Structure prediction request, 237 residues.
Amino acid sequence: MATYVLSDIHGEYAMLRKMLEKINFSDQDTLYVLGDVIDRGPHPVKALQYLMQLPNAICLAGNHELMAVQALPFLFKDIQDISFDEDMDEMDSLMNWYYNGAKETLSELKQLRVPERVQVFEFMQNMLAYEEVQVAGKNYLLVHAGLGNFRPEKEMVDYTLGDLLWERADYSVQYFPDKYVVSGHTPTQLIDENPKPGFIYRANNHISIDCACSNELGRLACICLDTGEEFYIEHMN
Prediction:
C-alpha cells in the first residue's frame, strides 16, 4: 500500500503503462497525476481514458487540461450556433491551445463517439487544482505548477488557476517549513540549480518531478511518497 506521484505524461501512453508495471502498481496503491496528461505525445486521450478507468488514480489539472476545458466548448457548438462576436474568447482559447500542442489530442478526440468525448471533457472539467495529503507522517501539497504570487499567510483557496497551473515554482523559496510541495510543469532540465538535469530535483521543500518525457532526451519520472524512492522510464522513440 503505497502513494505514488507522477506528472506531465503528455500523451506518452506506453511510457505510462511501463511506469505502472515498474512500480508494480496495485489496487491497494494510490497514484496522483499532477496534470498535463494530454497534448504533444502520440496518445494523449488514450492515456487520459486509461487513468479515468483506474479508481485509485487521482488526476489533478495541468495548464494543458485547463486550455482544453476553455477551448472545447467552442468545438462542441453547431456551426449555426456560433456567433463570431460573442465567441471570440473561446476562439482565442482554441488557437492558444492548438499553439501549445493540442493537435494530437484533437486528432484522438475526433475518433471518439460523442458520448465518449463528453466523458473526457467532463473528467477534465472536474479535476482538482491541488491536493494536500499526509504520507508516512509528512505533509505534501500536490500541484501542477507552483504557487504564483506566493505569500506565507495566503490561504490555498485564494490562489487562482493561473497561480497554480501556469506560474512556475520558485525553487529558491521554501514555501512552507512543515510541508513539501510536489510539482511538475517545469522540466527539471531547465532548473539552473539542478545538479542532475532531467532527474527529480529536491530543494527547499520542493520536489520537482517533470523530467520532460515528451522530449526524446527526457524521461517519465515517478516518486513514492512513502519511501522517497524515484523511478524513471526513458523516452520511447
In short: DSSP finds seven helices and ten strands in the chain. The beta strands are 3-6, 30-33, 57-59, 130-135, 138-143, 180-183, 201-203, 206-208, 219-224, 230-234. The mean pLDDT is 92. Residues 223 and 229 are 6 Å apart (CA to CA).
